[in-house]
Amino acid sequence: MTIAVKPDQSGEPLFYLADEHPHPEGYSTSLGFWIYLMSDCLIFAILFAAFGVLGGNYAAGPAPKDLFDLSLVAVNTSMLLLSSITYGFAMLTMQQNRVGATQAWLAITGLFGLAFIGIELSEFAHMIHEGATPQRSAFLSSFFTLVGTHGLHVSCGLIWLVTLMTQVWRFGLIEANRRRLMCLSMFWHFLDVVWIGVFTFVYLLGVLR
Amino acid sequence: MSTDTHAAHAADHHHDAHAHGSLSTYLLGFVLSVVLTAIPFWLVMGGAIPNKNITALVIMAFAVVQIVVHMIYFLHMNTKAEDGWSMMAMIFTIVMVVIALSGSLWVMNHLNSNMMPVHQMSGMK
Residues 161 to 190 of A: which have CB under 8 A from any B CB? Predict the structure, then answer.
């Protein structure tokens, strides 16, 4: 914002805000997207708080110790972590204008993300098969809401990833696509940060409890 | 602020906003996060520390450190990005998250402990 100073008739200086000069397209996208991520962070914070309050109410049902297989969670965590670094490689190759390499790293990222979702869904299916449904206890309701919301975010990220790969395939690494890939990068790494909270507070502390 | 310095500032700002990592920072972040993930899992699965409360505190500390590592090496957070507004938004969010989490846990815990057990209530007139 520019502040212009102009003396008026009596010689007193007059301050006013001059018109905004035009910004290039996408100028404020990264800040806007960051603020969206922060608001998403608040959603997860509330879900974590709900899990923190309800996580011990088993209603004589299964407890984390009976349900969680930590080695499976460790595999799942490594899938997400690997997808984070491969997305990082996609961003690095994008900066070098290597379209093919970028697409390849994006595809690898998508496969790791798909593996993550697949493992999580099979875990959910196994739990539900054993009768540990969201209706069973307050612990399970809050568990499925928190972990399910994260899984839903990753699924949306995968759809976005495929969309952007199609965009890059059609139009190449144009400025708009670079901006979009940067937003998805922030989204993807943010989900990895949320997952750190999930595996620590839900799985590790749950089994420890 | 004159238009010239603003334009120069805007160009500078644009450059900052697109601060990306290099191969070495990504790899360093990845190695750090693998180590910071592996140790908590090992602590819980192997039961290296007999005291559960100490184990809980240690793995929470590892989580906090790993979140900071991800923020710096993967999300490229710094105080200069977007003229510091990214950092401002994040500090505001952290304050909100801390209030929401600690407030919920604190209030609900007090509510639980002050609640009269059901078997005592039946004896009341």
Answer: 182, 186, 189-190
Q: Is residue A5 part of a domain?
A: no
Does the residue A192 lie in any domain? yes
CATH code: domain of residue A136: 1.20.120.80
Residue A12 lies in a domain: no
Contact B85 A52 (CB under 8 A): no
Which residues of chain A lie closer than 8 angstroms to B96, CB-CB?
Answer: 42, 45
Q: Is residue A10 part of a domain?
A: no
Arithmetic mean of pLDDT, A22-45: 91
**Hey, what long-range contacts does A125-133 have (CB within 8 A, 24 or more apart)?**
A127/A67, A130/A62, A130/A67, A131/A62, A132/A61, A132/A62, A132/A67
- Give me the residues of A, 72-111, that contact B with CB < 8 A: 73-74, 77-78, 81, 84-85, 88-89, 91-92, 95
Chain A partners of B87 at a C-beta cutoff of 8 Å? none
Could you report the per-residue pLDDT of A41-53, keeping only the tens digit for each? 999 999 999 999 9
Segments forming the whole domain that contains residue A198: 28-208
For A52, A94, A137, B107, B122, the CA distances from B117, given in Å and listed in that order, are 21, 62, 19, 18, 9
What total number of domains does chain A contain? 1
Q: Which residue has the higher pLDDT, A177 or B1?
A: A177
pLDDT in tens, B81-100: 888 899 999 999 999 999 99
